[in-house]
Amino acid sequence: MSVLSARGLRKSYGASEVVRGVDLEVAKGECFGLLGPNGAGKTTTLRLCLGLTEPGAGDIELLGEPVPARAREARARVGVVPQLDNLDPDFTVTENLLVYSRYFGIPAGEIRARIPGLLEFAGLAGRGDARINTLSGGMKRRLTLARALVNDPQVLFMDEPTTGLDPQARHVIWERLKQLLARGKTILLTTHFMEEAERLCSRLVVMDRGRFIGEGSPRELIAERIEPQVIEVHGEGVEAWSEGEARALAPRVELAGDTAFCYVRDPAPLLASLERQSGLRYLHRPANLEDVFLKLTGRELRD
After folding, report:
1. Spatial separation of the C-alpha atoms in residues 235 and 221, rounded to whole Å
2. Collapsing DSSP states into helix, strand and coil, what is residue 236?
3. Per the structure, how many domains does the chain have?
4. Please, are residues 170 and 1 in contact by the beta-carbon 8 Å criterion?
5. Tell me: the pLDDT tens digits for 62-71?
6. Residue 271 maps to which CATH number?
7. Do 40 and 67 meet the contact criterion of CB atoms below 8 Å apart?
């Protein structure tokens, strides 16, 4: 059963078309990932699907409601975790949840009864009276997640939910999201963290320059889009080696800075070559989602 579908979605700002005819289908209960470099169109796509931005073309249906015509009705059953925390610094933790619940018309008695459970879920039990400026970045992010759950949503839209967090805080967020998926919630997630996408997403798309350029489960994309073995090589003379012997032995070699990335199916010939190179150091590993992402979108810096 689909909870979100979009067909032929387009959006332009002036002469720049930032979403270029994408089709999207998100099934109930899945975590669907939207990956892409900066400026790929990910956030605009989320805003279009939520009815916060008017599309230039295309059809959108969210939880059975046409968007943007009935976006407000659809959003009543949706939770949103924005890219940047927008908690009210003048309110306490509890007051932030109380005020936000008024947007959904939730009776004060009902939300007060639910707040202890929300704070427990977010790892903020005992912090209800704390001011926002006393919270760490990880605490603020978990509170933003708790706030997105005040209306017990069927679908969660999450725009880079762990950006700026340390590894410990990131893992806590991942564990909470897995709990929500186990409860049957649907999550639409944008992220720059490939490990996050591999851990959480049952299906994902790679987006670049307004288009979807790869789609499938993380495992499918790795199996179908990239050679299975990667050898990372660096050290004195790596550029000459990568342009010579490496290209004779590996079907694909990419030089990025002082590191050569060699993508192979059979690593044995390349490893034998490296054993004879005293000035080079290397790491041999299986291919991962980041390799797929870089192959599809390139290694150039995006601003």
Report:
1. 31
2. coil
3. 1
4. no
5. 999 999 999 9
6. 3.30.70
7. no
Structural domain including 277 reads 227-286
Angle, to 10 degrees, between the axis of helix 137-148 and the axis of helix 167-182?
20
Give the C-alpha separation, 303 to 85, whole Å.
21
- Compute the distance between CA of residue 210 and CA of residue 11 in angstroms, rounded to an integer: 9
Tell me if 260 is assigned to some domain.
Answer: yes
Query: 178-232, pLDDT tens digit by residue?
Result: 999 999 999 999 998 899 999 999 999 999 999 999 999 999 999 999 999 999 9
Q: Which residues contact 181 (CB under 8 A, 6 or more apart)?
A: 29, 30, 31, 187, 200
- The answer as to whether 272 is a domain residue is yes
Output b/e per residue, 49-68; b: 16+ Cβ within 10 A.
Answer: bbbebebeebebbbbebebb
> SS3 for 295?
helix
Q: Which of 261, 300, 251, 301 is nearest to 284 (CA)?
A: 261
- Nearest 5°: the CA angle 246, 251, 257 is 55
Structural domain includes residue 255: yes
Is the whole model's pTM more than 0.90, yes or no? yes
- Gyration radius (Cα) of the chain, Å: 22
- In a domain? residue 115: no
Return all residues near 275 (Cβ < 8 A) that are at least 6 apart: none
For residue 203, what are the contacts with CB-CB under 8 A and spacing of at least 6?
27, 30, 31, 32, 33, 215, 216, 217
Helix, coil or strand: residue 200: helix
